[in-house]
Amino acid sequence: MRFLREIYDLMLYGAKAYADWDLTTSRRILHSRKRLAILGLLLVPVVIGGIAFADDVAGALPGMLGGKTAYAPAFYTGTIFFASIAVGLVAGLITGCIGAGGGFIIAPALMSAGVKGILAVGTDLFHIFAKAIMGSVLHRKLGNVSVALAGVFLIGSVGGATLGGYINRTLYEANPVLSDAFITTTYVLMLGFLCSYALYDFFRARKQDVKDAKAIAAGGKKKAGAMTGLAQRLQAINLPPMIKFDEGVTPGGRRISWLFLVLSGGLVGLAAAIMGVGGGFLTFPIFVYVLGVSSATTVGTDIFQIIFTAGYAGLGQYAIYGFIFYTLAMGMLLGSLVGIQVGSLVTKVVSGTTICGLYAVATSAGFINRAFALPGKLAKLEFISMSKEAGKMLDTVGTYVFFAVLGSFALWVFWIFFTNIRVLKGEEEVFDEKHMHAKEAKA
Question: Per-domain residue ranges for the chain?
Answer without folding.
Answer: 2-442
